[in-house]
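Appendix B. Chain record.
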Amino acid sequence: MVNRKTLDPKQSPRAAFGQRLRALRDEHGWTQDELADRIGCTGSHISAVETGRRPPTQRFASIADRVLGTGDRLERQSRSVRRTALLEGFEEYVRYEARAEEVRLFEVGLIPGPLQTREYAAAIESGHVRRGAITTEQAEERVHILLSRQEALARDLSPLVFVVLDESCIRRVVGGTDVMGRQLARLIEFAEQPNTALQIAPYSMGERRPFNRSVNLLTLTDRSVCGYVESQTQGYLDREITSVMPLMRAYHQLQTEASSQAESVFLIDQVRKGIS
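Structure tokens predicted for this chain:
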């Protein structure tokens, strides 16, 4: 079949559900539109669920079970999709990030995802598992999504990536000294790339630091901008120019106040040597 997207059920609970739905539909010999007519939705909705772009609701899975004669198998599987560890709004942000022309990040306490080594990311997620915040499967899903996100940013026409890290990001040891040492080395490698800029916002900035939580800003191909911010329990993608532009102005002020890239790389290297 032309343009039939290959599915990897190991990628995420969404992908596993989509792969099973497609396999069951194929067994019945139905098109997406034919299954949609039986469930009471659209063919595009079926396509979005099968390719993992849209999560199945409990009602959708329950009706699909009845239509496909699968008992409650799909409804039970859909629960793992809805229990995903990703914050609401984050997946939408990642889709925009993958095609942005410019990416601006600010982080406090932890190295942001696009700059993390796999072992640093795994250490963070293992901490969440030990606290009971997420399952082992959800931790693995998070790391997989992170690596996919990094691959998207390393595309042929890579975006410009500007990163400002609060000094706490490089001082806080995650995963032990060996893991942290390699993570700091990764930051230095990142700064050497032609499409990147890395700065540290030192503790001495004090009250002049404009942000108290992580901020993600994207400039898209049409030069529109969007922002993504998170609370402890929810993420929010904002495309309203009236609320995003103040964040953009504050980010430019942050870059002006932060240490230069040369000063920042020197500090990172000193911290790396100090923990090795």
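Further analysis of this model is presented in Appendix C.
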